[in-house]
From TrEMBL:
Keywords: Cell cycle, Cell division, Chromosome, DNA condensation, Mitosis
GO cellular component, one term: condensin complex
Ranges of biased composition (kind: Low complexity): 952-977
Top-level taxonomic group: Eukaryota
Subcellular compartments: Chromosome
Listed name of the protein: Nuclear condensin complex subunit 3 C-terminal domain-containing protein
GO biological process, one term: mitotic chromosome condensation
Domain spans labelled Nuclear condensin complex subunit 3 C-terminal: 519-860
Ranges where the record places region Disordered: 933-1037
InterPro entries assigned: ARM-like (IPR011989), ARM-type_fold (IPR016024), CND3 (IPR027165), Cnd3_C (IPR025977)
Pfam families: Cnd3
Length: 1037
């Protein structure tokens, strides 16, 4: 009997094809055609049913596996292949399959959601434009994908972003606006880097999205930054970006910390911006960057292109073509045409690069041998020859070229400065060249009218540096040091300039502009010499400079003249072996009584002198010449550091108080003081004068950093942020300073205690949260690990092991040691809490509760049994005084349980004398006494009330003398925290119903006598803030 061959079912056929496509991608195109043929044979819907059933196991796989990815790739191929003869069937099947995928995308299973969204996104991205799908289906897809962008699984959010990328466009459409809003919101808040990278890749280019892409060139993730540069080069035309955006993009990309991002930025710069948009002309590219405003960016672009060999110089190009000698008449040169700003920067960077490359190759040739040395020497010679062809042929031509641009006015000031920097690479080996250049420098420094102008009392420039800006002074100094190689020659040349400029000031009748120019030249001289001894025998010596120019200028009525003079006084004192007494006195007077602009400069000068000469030398000098004149506040006896610390208490963040420093950054007096003290505190080992003041100054810096009024001063906050990140890791002494300042900082910020204002309820709650955040910040600083090489040689860790001295190959962060700072901080917190245990106000209770939470988070060593005993003794006293505060007592009991576990001798206790000795050694007992004295003032009406109590009942005379032994009423104990309100309500009731003035708690006292007798020691604490009715009730009892 013959056996008929079994025909496989549709489901088996589909399953076989799917299984085969999991192993290889080579047969996927052929198998997709077989599935299409099978689908055409079953148009009754049976194919979709069997197909979906076979795919169900795929949706349950969440992990990324190669077999699953190959199968999904096959599904995408099958769904996107379109047969022209069966186009309607393909579209209908696609719509039905999309409906199933959209339903699965709402599943609670993360694997089902992931695979559904993945298949949807891949199909949408590869779908042909001629596919006919209903608008209703696309609306459902957009709605579903927008919802999946909020999914908690990052991979699902990634595929939903990719799916929406097909529908996003720059057109004005409601659906498009919804997608763009979702993109921009996720780009701003999503923590997953892959999600942000895909948003950057799929967001449509437009004026509104351009800012988002530029902003993410500074993303924290390398892949996102790299993708941002790819999109900028492909989707955004170079001309559509603003100058600021171009400069920002190049500044970030060319200086990125990752080489891959730098390479992508350089590729965009070279291939797209230079070759495609600027036709390979670097000067055109520099014009698009506005190099006068963005000089550093232009320099970085030039260096990057030179290193990439993207710039070549043709014959005849160079600075020589800007000076023509054909029209020479009477020793003058006719200039061909003026240099543009881009051309000046171009040739300055080019000559500097050639000079450095020639020197480097020459050094390599001298240190190597053989063929390598010959090759390096040939390259060095080639670079030098090219440099000679680019530079002016003679020193005379160079000087005339610079003078020609200087004479045109301030609009060519940038070009002239670039030419001065180019002059460093001229040949100064000839004495004639040095003489020509020296004469030119003297004329340049004595003729600054083209750079500083006085018009309507407005000074152009910073008013401090030579030429009105620091960069100009730096360029002049570099050229001057090339011309005058020895310090003596340099000092003589500049002193001649200072003597000529300051002559009207010393003789009298000088204008404000003449004062500014003279002080700028004097500051230039003092900045570039090592000692005032170099001025001996010069045109103006040190004592003449001080007495004839600097001191009179410091007393000038004009603020800008006074500020420039104070800067010069600080430089003058630094160059002295011992600072001048007259200069120190003037700096101190300005700090105390000067205008704010002068106070800022005096603060900088005093900080520099403290670091250079030491604070004791300054204090001794000031004490010799200080007088009561100009010192109405009596601050004449204070040391310099204390005078500076006093200025930290006043916040001056208003706009009229903001000034720009030499680098163009806005700064305030508090910012200058904070920066100076931060430097001293970080280097406390070197500057030991700050050690006696480090705790109060650290407290002020912390409060200043957390002050809401300093949010508008970014320089101050940035400086303190860096300081607080570094300070605890530098030294163990710094951790001790943080520990000792902990209680002071929190107490000064907590509202409602120690004279701190309480304000409204919402304001007090906000300040409490602020202080709690501050306490966590300090605790984090205290537990921050030390830098490598700073850790002590032996440390005891939590497990009792002892770490030996770390070698140089140990990791940078050691395991966190349990040092004595936590233990001493616990003692200080316990002493602080015991000082507040008698305070029953709501502010004091919340303050104690917060301190106890911090206390419970600290760690202890089992070897320090004495500290454990001290804490147990202090907590016992605290617990007795906190009856009624259940949560606080619960925290104390939890902490006591920890102490019991590490207590090796639970039967032994510490004596009061030993406790006082330990607290005295730590300086806590004195602190505690001062706190109690300030926190518990005697209420003025208590004596009168007690006097009335004694009249009402003579049997209470003993209790009034010894209030600790008095037995309280239990109901009053329960409501101790609202005692003031109870007293007020009792008084109101007594006025309304006199017959009900009987105190009922006395009758309940007998019922709860056992409970009351246990709390005898707490009664005075519970009634310390109660009203007269409670006192009468106690007397009646």
């Amino acid at each position: 009997m013959g056996m008929e061959a079994k025909v496989p079912s549709v489901e088996d056929t589909i399953a076989g094809i799917l299984n085969e496509c999991q192993h290889s991608t080579g047969l996927q195109a052929r198998r997709a055609k077989e599935l299409m043929k099978l689908r055409s044979q079953h148009r009754d819907g049976a194919f979709l049913t069997h197909f979906w059933k076979c795919l169900l196991p795929l949706f349950l796989v969440f992990k990324r596996e190669p077999a699953v990815e190959r199968l999904i790739r096959f599904l995408v191929t099958f769904l996107t292949v379109r047969n022209e003869k069966q186009g309607a069937d393909c579209d209908a099947f696609l719509e039905e399959f999309f409906g199933l995928l959209l339903s699965s995308a709402e599943s609670s299973n993360k694997g089902v959601r992931l695979r559904s969204v993945q298949i949807l996104s891949e199909v949408i991205l590869r779908l042909n434009e001629d596919a006919e799908v209903s608008d209703n289906l696309w609306d459902n897809v957009i709605e579903s994908m927008l919802k999946r962008m909020q999914d908690k699984i990052p991979a699902i959010r990634v595929y939903s972003v990719r799916a929406l990328g097909r529908f996003a466009s720059a057109e004005d459409d409601p659906d498009n606006d919804t997608i763009l809003c979702a993109y921009r919101k996720a780009l701003e808040s999503d923590q997953n880097a892959e999600v942000r990278r895909n948003i950057v890749a799929f967001i449509p280019p437009s004026n509104s999205t351009m800012h988002d892409i530029v902003r993410h060139t500074a993303d924290v993730n390398e892949a996102v930054r790299k993708m941002a540069f790819v999109i900028l080069s492909k989707k955004f035309p170079f001309q559509s970006l603003s100058i600021k955006q171009r400069a920002c993009i190049l500044q970030r990309g060319l200086h990125d910390r990752r080489e891959t991002v730098q390479a992508e930025c350089l590729k965009m710069l070279k291939d797209v911006w230079l070759n495609k948009c600027c036709q390979g002309d670097a000067l055109v590219l520099l014009k698009y960057l506005d190099v006068e405003t963005n000089e550093t960016v232009g320099e970085s672009v030039m260096l990057a292109l030179l290193k990439a060999d993207a710039i070549t110089v043709q014959d005849g190009q160079g600075l020589q073509r800007f000076v023509s000698s054909t029209g020479r008449t009477e020793g003058q040169f006719e200039q061909a045409h003026q240099l543009e700003a881009e051309e000046a920067l171009y040739w300055r960077v080019f000559t500097s690069y050639l000079h450095s490359e020639a020197q480097a190759k020459g050094h390599d040739a001298a240190t190597t041998g053989g063929a390598e040395a010959t090759m390096n020497a040939a390259v060095a010679t080639e670079k030098n020859e090219l440099l000679d062809r680019v530079l002016p042929s003679s020193m005379v031509e160079y000087v005339e070229l610079v003078k020609a641009h200087l004479g045109e006015g301030p609009h060519l000031h940038f070009v002239a400065r670039q030419l001065l920097l180019i002059g460093k690479h001229m040949d100064f080996s000839d004495a004639a060249n040095r003489k020509t250049a020296g004469t030119f420098l003297h004329e340049l420094m004595c003729f600054p009218e083209g750079h500083l102008e006085e018009e309507n009392d407005v000074i152009i420039g910073d008013g401090l540096s030579l030429g009105g800006e620091k960069q100009w002074a730096t360029a002049v100094a570099e050229l001057a040091w090339k011309v005058h190689e020895t310090p003596r020659e340099f000092a003589m040349m500049v002193s001649n300039v200072v003597a000529d400029l300051s002559k009207p000031c010393r003789e009298g009748g000088a204008s404000v502009m003449q004062w500014i120019n003279s002080l700028a030249a004097a500051g230039f001289l003092l900045e570039n010499i090592e000692s005032l001894q170099l001025l001996t025998g010069c045109a103006i010596e040190g004592h003449e400079l001080l007495g004839g120019l600097l001191l009179p200028a410091a007393k000038h009525i004009h603020t800008e003249v006074q500020r420039a003079a104070i800067r010069c006084l600080g430089l003058f004192c630094i160059k002295e072996v011992k600072p001048s007494l007259q200069a120190l006195k003037q700096l101190r007077v300005i700090l105390l009584n000067g205008v704010l602009l002068s106070q800022k400069m005096a603060s900088k000068a005093l900080f520099d002198l403290c670091m250079w000469h030491g604070a004791p030398l300054l204090d001794r000098g000031i004490s010799l010449c200080v007088t009561d004149e100009g010192d109405p506040d009596g601050d004449s006896g204070l040391p310099a550091l204390e005078l500076l610390a006093q200025k930290l208490d006043v916040i001056d963040t208003e706009k009229q108080h903001l000034t720009e420093n030499e680098d163009g950054e806005e700064e305030t007096l508090q910012g200058i003081l904070a920066e100076g003290f931060a430097k001293l505190l970080l280097q406390s080992k070197t500057f030991s004068d700050i050690i006696p003041l480090q705790e109060p100054i650290f407290t002020k810096l912390v409060r200043l950093y957390f002050n809401e009024e300093t949010r508008n001063t970014p320089r101050l906050r940035q400086c303190l942020a860096v300081f607080f990140e570094t300070y605890p890791s530098v030294s163990l002494q710094h951790k001790g300073c943080i520990m000792k300042s902990f209680v002071h900082v929190i107490r000064s910020e907590w509202p409602g205690i120690c004279g701190n204002g309480n304000g409204t309820h919402s304001n007090a709650a906000m300040r409490r949260r602020h202080a709690t955040k501050l306490s966590k910040f300090l605790l984090q600083m205290l537990h921050q690990p030390l830098f490598e090489g700073v850790a002590p040689s032996r440390q005891t860790f939590e497990n009792g092991e002892v770490a030996e001295e770390a070698d140089s190959h140990s990791p940078k962060e050691l395991p966190k040691p349990v040092l004595e700072f936590d233990e001493e901080l616990a003692l200080r917190i316990a002493a602080e809490v015991s000082g507040f245990s008698t305070q029953r106000s709501a502010a004091a209770k919340s303050y104690v509760a917060m301190l106890l939470k911090i206390l419970c988070s600290l760690e202890f060593r089992e070897s320090e049994q004495e500290v454990i005993k001290c804490l147990q003794k202090l907590l016992a006293n605290i617990k007795d005084a906190l009856v009624g505060d259940r949560q606080t007592i619960k925290d104390i009991e939890s902490f006591e349980a920890r102490l019991v576990r590490v207590d090796k001798t639970p039967q032994a206790t510490i004596a009061d004398t030993d406790l006082d000795r330990i607290l005295r050694n730590l300086g806590i007992d004195e602190l505690k006494f001062c706190e109690n004295e300030a926190k518990t003032p005697a209420p003025p009406s208590t004596k009168g009330r007690r006097r009335r109590v004694r009249k009402a009942s003579s049997s209470d005379s003993d209790s009034s003398v010894s209030p600790v032994a008095r037995t309280p009423a239990p109901p009053t104990t329960v409501r101790a925290q609202r005692s003031s309100k109870t007293a007020a309500m009792g008084k109101i009731r007594s006025d309304l119903a006199p017959s009900k003035k009987i105190i009922y708690p006395s009758s309940e006292e007998g019922l709860d006598s056992d409970a009351s007798s246990k709390n005898d020691t707490d009664s005075e604490d519970n009634f310390s803030e109660s009203g007269s009715d409670i006192e009468v009730g106690t007397a009646g009892a």
